[in-house]
């Protein structure tokens, strides 16, 4: 039992050890549908691209990717895999964060303002995703730029937590905001 049965009840938080804590679920609590289109094929290879930003105060080397394949009708785990961070990300895929990224006001009910400066002139893509990872706003600039200042209308979004991603060839930056 790990020795917790010998401690006071309830166990004081300072005495608890938290290991293998889920930091994020990609998709919804039940996963992402239809990633494996034909699960009857033996030795089939499947891929799924996702994005998750590890908070700057976290040690990325403590992270693992846990992949699980569930039977859609029963919820039974068909297969799973645990892969350490060092095996799923390489330096060439890790994009440095942009500098001077500002998002305000946060929280907001109608508009958010986005400001940033780039080290060099390039095109920019802005994505807003909901907590389930669905893209609810997308804007890609055709004209290269070195600075950006825009007010984005979020009044049509449902109240909740969203993630705004700013992406260029040189890097990506993300920040959470709350729509009230």
Architecture blueprint of SSEs:
Layout: E1 64-70, E2 77-84, H1 85-88, E3 99-104, E4 111-122, E5 125-130, E6 135-140, E7 145-153, E8 160-167, E9 172-179
Antiparallel strand pairs: 1-2, 3-4, 4-7, 5-6, 5-8, 8-9
Concise overview:
The protein is mainly β. It has one helix at residues 85-88; strands at residues 64-70, 77-84, 99-104, 111-122, 125-130, 135-140, 145-153, 160-167, 172-179.
Number of helices: 1
Helix content: under 10%
In N-to-C order, the SSE pattern is EEHEEEEEEE
Mean pLDDT: 76
Radius of gyration over C-alpha positions, nearest whole angstrom: 20 Å
Contiguous uncertain segments of 5+ residues: 90-96
Give the DSSP E fraction (strand runs of 2 or more residues). 35-45%
- What profile does the largest beta sheet have? 4 strands, antiparallel
Q: How many beta-strand runs?
A: 9
The termini sit apart by 43 Å
- Class from secondary-structure proportions: mainly beta
- Taken from the alpha-carbon principal axes, the silhouette is globular
- Read across the widest sheet, the strand sequence of neighbours is 6-5-8-9
């Amino acid at each position: 039992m790990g020795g917790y049965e010998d401690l006071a009840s309830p166990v004081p938080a300072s005495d608890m050890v938290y290991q293998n804590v889920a930091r994020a679920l990609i998709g919804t609590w039940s996963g992402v549908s239809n990633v494996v289109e034909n699960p009857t094929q033996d030795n089939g290879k499947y891929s799924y691209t996702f994005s998750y930003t590890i908070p700057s105060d976290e040690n990325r080397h403590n992270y693992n990717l846990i992949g699980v394949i569930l039977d859609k009708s029963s919820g039974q785990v068909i297969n799973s895999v645990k892969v350490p961070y060092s095996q799923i990300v390489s330096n060439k895929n890790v994009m440095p964060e942009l500098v001077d990224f500002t998002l305000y006001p946060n929280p907001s009910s109608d508009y958010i303002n986005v400001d940033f400066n780039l080290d060099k002139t390039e095109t920019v893509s802005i994505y807003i995703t909901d907590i389930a990872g669905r893209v609810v706003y997308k804007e890609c600039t055709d004209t290269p730029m070195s600075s950006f200042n825009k007010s984005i209308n979020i009044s049509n979004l449902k109240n909740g937590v969203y993630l705004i991603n700013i992406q260029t060839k040189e890097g990506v930056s993300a920040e959470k905001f709350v729509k009230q």
